[in-house]
Amino acid sequence: MTEHLLQFFKAMAHESRLRIVGLLAQGERSVQELATLLDLREPTVSHHLAILKAEGLVTVRADGPTRWHALDVAALERLTRKVLEPHGVTEAPPEPVRWDEKVVQGFLDAEGRLKVIPASRRKRAVVLRWLMDGFAPDHRYREAEVNDILQRKHWDSATLRRELVGHDMLAREAGVYWRLPESAWKDGA
To answer: Considering Cα of 153, then 159, then 162, then 166, what sign does the dihedral take?
Structure first.
């Protein structure tokens, strides 16, 4: 519902379209009439009418070579009721996709595995953070376990292991690895 309302308001947020709606509220008009009344070119009027038609606010009736455009008052009334309904506008907008989620998705294949390790340090840090979801805090991992976790996401576990240690995400001592607190992680910038 919210998306539909946004499209409606975008469509109506243009002076020429508002003027067209006002003229069509008085009765049917052809593109030629509207162009003359609004002092616009016919292609411009047609463009604005197409946007209004896409929103369901304008209907078209053919009469020989002339196409008559009319305001769909019932559609406008339905939309007005939806806008005025208490829950019509208050529903939460969809959560925007965060930049880091977009970065990770851009490096994954259809199976959710890394296609490549990012060359950009900033993007690599984002992908490394994503990889850290596989490591529990307060758990000690043997190198073979670390490799197993990483190879589920990319074949080159040695490079990823070194990167995680280098970004202070994992610590290593005597072949044993553990997750460091996020406050210690380097961001790669």
So the answer is: negative
